[in-house]
Amino acid sequence: MNAIRSTLFMAYAILWSVLSAPLVVIAGPLLPGNWAYRFGKLWRLGTQFGVENILGIRPKVIGRENMPKEACVILSKHQSAWETMTLQDCVPDGAYCVFVLKKELLKVPFIGWGLAAMKMISIDRAAGKDALDQVVSQGRERLKQGFYVILFPEGTRVAPGQTKRYKPGGAYLATHVGCKVVPIAHDAGELWPRQAFLKKPGTVTISIGPAFDATGMSEIEVNKKAEEWIETEMRRLSPHRYPDAVSST
Prior knowledge:
The protein is α/β, with parallel strands linked by helices. It has a single domain, classed as 3-Layer(aba) Sandwich (Rossmann fold), CATH 3.40.50. It has 8 helices and 8 strands, in the order H-H-E-E-H-E-H-E-H-E-H-E-E-E-H-H. Residues 72-189 form the Phospholipid/glycerol acyltransferase domain. Keywords: Acyltransferase, Transferase. InterPro entries: Plipid/glycerol_acylTrfase.
């Protein structure tokens, strides 16, 4: 059954992208205001419809009251493609999100073109310190415009139960701009594994942690605070993935 669901969803997602992505790529930039983001939201919601009604994967959000009303930096666990869609529903109604991503993604047909039209924060990872400055210069502008900036501090999708080094990009942006930071944990990888064709139906829990102000903090302090909350919460959400969490109960 999972194979049938996954095959049907893949066909649906491709067809929906072919029909809706051109609205983002072509019409969005030609119209005033945030039409690229509006069409992008239409594209995303259509895809999520397939996720929920074909794959049977639905979200459960806890801690929604922790999300600030003003634009901020969101640091989230990254396990699959699922959260790149659904995390955007965690910000206040009417607000939009942008992601920090590598420039190579902008070349991917349809998806990459749409991301470019929505002016995501794109960086050259090989640029070293200059890449951090790119995050700050673009991120500052997006925050001023009211966009919530989402980053995955581990830099790549990580399998459930694993942790990679938290990179400084998000913390660097927050400390240089002086804004709030929101940590987020979730267990999407349990149902939508990294680079896996087969997905399983069920409920993904998104846990939004308490926001904290990065003003006056160092990047190391911001990353440490975010990592401590996220990784502790991951052990609560998926204790079976962490032997130390199971043994301590």
